[in-house]
Amino acid sequence: MYTLLRPTTADSGNVGWAQLSNGSYLMMVGGFDSQPLDFYTSSSATGPYSFLSRWQGSFKAFQNTNLVTECGTGNLYLIGSYENGASEDWLETYALNVPANGATPTVTPAGRRHMVCTLMTRRQCDFDAAGGSYVSPAHEIFFYSTEHAHNGPDGTVKLTEFRTINPNPQSCNSALGSAWVELFEDSNFEGDSLMIDYSDQFREDYSDYTKVERFGDRVSSARWCLPEKLSYKLYQDDNFRGTTKTLTGVGEDADFDRSPGITAWTDKVSSSQYVRER
User: Fold this and answer.
1) Residue, of 176 and 40, whose pLDDT is higher
2) In the chain, what are the domains?
3) Backbone angles phi, psi at 68, to 5 degrees
4) Backbone angles phi, psi at 244, to 5 degrees
5) What would the pLDDT profile of 198-236 be if each residue is shown by its tens digit?
6) Please, are residues 27 and 73 in contact by the beta-carbon 8 Å criterion?
7) Is pLDDT of 148 > 80?
8) DSSP state, 188?
9) What is the spatial distance between Cα 20 and Cα 76, in angstroms, rounded to a whole number?
């Protein structure tokens, strides 16, 4: 653990940290409502860190900020999360240029996305609470957000995971635990969704989708990540009965309205399960 000493007049609202392409480390400390942004550098992850530069400009009042180094290019990005006061949760991304000579950094908007924390009228997370980014070994970016209270089972705090829409095939290896299927309410991967990880497949009763977030006959599109010798079977009736469709492959996605072999399946899935080859 490293303690960063800052002036007594400087607020510390959030912190971002990343290793740069040159091997050094950059720490960013945002003040009250993320204003200003102070940057510190070190040759070691554990410090000590020295002040480099400050950026002051028009910015959102982010609850959480993360620094992410892009794989391959080494470009640096800031990811900020916030709730806009109307129960709408947002992620915004900025390209950062932090000169090593201490010159004023530049912060350029790169994109924003409205995220959905409400499922079936129930609040699952809140971007005004804790949140953070993670980059997987397969170079996929994830974002996690918690709720403010502890309204989960047995007084636990609910945590929501947001994944990339187009998975990297490398994220599915031979380990069964890497497999997952996500089913969406609407076509084009929109609306509410069910994320069914292989390791969590028995936590819900997927033999009857009316018992799982009332998802019976509501699935219109899907994405999946399945290693060899593992498939996922969809059924048009509950209790794993009726006409079936089998999903296979690594890093594939589909729209049930258009994709060959899956057409005419919109709003017809009533149960599903993983199937292992013997």
Assistant:
1) 40
2) 14-162 (2.115.10.20), 173-276 (2.60.20.10)
3) -135, 130
4) -120, 155
5) 988 998 899 999 888 778 888 888 888 888 889 999 999
6) no
7) yes
8) G
9) 8
Instruction: Return d(Cα 218, Cα 269) in angstroms, integer.
Output: 7
Q: What one-letter code names the amino acid at 64?
A: N
Q: How many CA atoms lie within 13 A of 267 on its CB side?
A: 1
Work out the number of other CB atoms within 10 angstroms of the CB of residue 208. 16
Dump the DSSP string for 130-154.
-EEEEE-TTS-EEEEEE-SS--SGG
pLDDT (average), residues 167-187? 80
* CB proximity list for 149: less than 8 A, separation 6 or greater: 157
Cα 165 from Cα 116, distance rounded (Å): 14
Q: What is the pLDDT of residue 120?
A: 63
Phi, psi angle pair for 161, to nearest 5°: -110, 130
Residue 40 β-bridge partners: 27, 51
Tokens of 209: 């989708």
Structure tokens at 238: 């509950």
Question: How many distinct helices (H) and strands (E) make up the chain?
Answer: 0, 20
Q: What is the mean pLDDT of residues 145-165?
A: 86
Reduced to 3 states (helix: H, G, I; strand: E, B; else coil), residue 169 is helix
Name the residue among 124, 123, 127 with its Cα closest to residue 114.
127
Bridge pairing between strands 37-42 and 50-55: antiparallel
Distances (CA, A) of 227 to 103, 119, 180, 214, 248: 48, 29, 10, 29, 8
Which helix (H) or strand (E) segment is 111 a member of?
Answer: strand 106-115
CA 229, 165, 126, 57 dihedral sign is positive
pLDDT, tens digit, for every residue of 36-46? 999 999 999 99
